[in-house]
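We were asked to recover a plausible sequence for a given structure. The inputs and outputs are reproduced exactly as logged, with field labels preserved.

PROBLEM: sequence recovery
POSITIONS: 211
GIVEN STRUCTURE:
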């Protein structure tokens, strides 16, 4: 199952990060983004009622080709609780071996955040399924190949500052997928409760990933 979830993230090409979306709206937002062609959706574990939000998105997308995960998972207890809520993959901005080992014990994909070769090796040794290169745009697309050079073909998912304008450069640089928040999740449209516009903004991002 870990392999299947990992493959679904790669097939999606982009993981859409839902950060700070209200519990009342989050299922509709996730549906709109899924309708735009995004099949990997991350709900961040920071803020209130994260477990309820993950469960709501999971319920909304049950029976579809979507995989639902949790982000900003900074420690092992948080990993346990998001997995209990239904997260099928777990991301973090940092590389915490305890988070990774917790995911492995539960059969869930873990994607720690790394920037340096030391962090990348720490994540790989702990059993990470993929590495999230974060924050991506401060180092740029060349950083992917520079890390893979000595370490081999580890799957890298750049995140942080990814937009329709630069996403192609990160795929050219060797990304297997990217994570995106503000450029794919239209917070103004969410504020206006305009799910058609949420879908359109996400679809423009998906077009950029596919082109
Ligand atoms: C986040 O911190 O929410 C993710 O890294 C996405 O960030 P972004 O808004 O820069 O895409």
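RECOVERED SEQUENCE:
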């Amino acid at each position: 199952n870990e392999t299947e979830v990992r493959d679904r993230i790669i097939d999606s090409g982009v993981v859409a990060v839902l950060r700070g979306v209200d519990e009342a709206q989050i299922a509709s937002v996730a549906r709109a983004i899924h309708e735009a062609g995004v099949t990997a959706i991350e709900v961040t574990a920071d803020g209130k009622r994260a477990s309820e939000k993950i469960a709501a998105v999971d319920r909304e997308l049950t029976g579809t080709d979507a995989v639902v995960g949790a982000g900003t998972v900074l420690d092992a207890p948080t990993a346990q609780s998001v997995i209990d809520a239904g997260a099928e993959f777990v991301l973090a901005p940092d590389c915490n071996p305890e988070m990774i080992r917790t995911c492995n014990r539960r059969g869930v994909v873990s994607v720690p955040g790394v920037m340096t070769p030391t962090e990348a090796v720490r994540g790989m040794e702990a059993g990470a399924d993929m590495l999230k290169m974060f924050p991506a745009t401060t180092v740029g697309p060349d950083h992917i190949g520079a890390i893979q050079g000595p370490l081999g073909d580890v799957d890298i998912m750049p995140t942080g500052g990814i937009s329709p304008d630069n996403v192609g450069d990160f795929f050219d640089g060797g990304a297997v997928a990217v994570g995106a928040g503000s450029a794919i999740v239209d917070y103004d449209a969410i504020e206006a409760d305009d799910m058609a516009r949420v879908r359109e903004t996400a679809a423009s991002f998906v077009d950029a990933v596919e082109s």
